[in-house]
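ok so I'm stuck.
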Amino acid sequence: MKLILPLLFAGCLALSAETEEQINKRFPVQPGGRLVVDVDFGSIDVNTNGTGEVVVDVVRKVRRGNKSDEEAFLRERPVTFSQDGNTVTVRSRAKSKNGWSWRGKQRTEGKYTITVPAQFNAQLKTSGGGIAASDLTGDLKAETSGGGLKFTRLRGPLDGATSGGGIRVGECEGTLKVNTSGGGIEVSGGSGSLEGDTSGGSVGVKDFHGPVRVGSSGGGINIENVVGKVKGSTSGGSISARFTSPLSEEVKLETSGGGVTVRVAENSAFDLDASTSGGGVSSELPVKVVGKIAHDRLAGPVNGGGKPVVLRTSGGSIHVKKL
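replied:
not stuck anymore, here's the structure
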């Protein structure tokens, strides 16, 4: 037993060892250039700097318990850098089509930390990690198969997609499009236009100025203080909306998986069109009813009428409440 225990302990130490690779590169650029990142694993974090450079810091770790296997894994997926004019490209993909495979347990970890001039475009892609970008002015496209997305204080068109995590957007301005198959969407502040879709979570939008279209197959929707046209639909939960400003554009909310509750200022003027096949309809504001009075439908102008507010559900009741 005295001989076996040290051997077991030594085996545990071997399995816990890892191979780490660190890379630092700098590229002189002008504002308005482009960063392209395409890697097979690792998170990507892009921020701005006060210089005329793209600065790339890479840390990659592999844990296998066998040093030669770990080094072979990294050699099969080298990080390459290139610059063509004002475009900097960072890539890491397997050399062979079939990739490098092994059997047994292993763990990989990677992080690409990159700073660029404030006015810069970026195209970011990873198959195994999250993506974050902040304080950029320019076009941004981000895609990951294995993590979340976080965007903060961006100025310009945004196109973000993930198959494996949630999306957070804060104080961004521009044409914003985000999509996830594996988590929720949270948007706070900002302006422009917003399109957001998720198959695996809820959607929340707060304090956004501009048209909003959001959809979910797996959760509820919460809208708060959006100034602009609103369209929201879900098949997986309830919808709640709160408008403290006058309704200057159309609002359309639809769910097949819960109720709909809308809160508006007492003096809000709009044309209500609400109906449900799974409950009742009620309003705390007076409605000049158009058509037949029914338990499951309420339609007519509120405070003289205005933009349409269309509410639909087949899975619950509809409530219009005053703030």
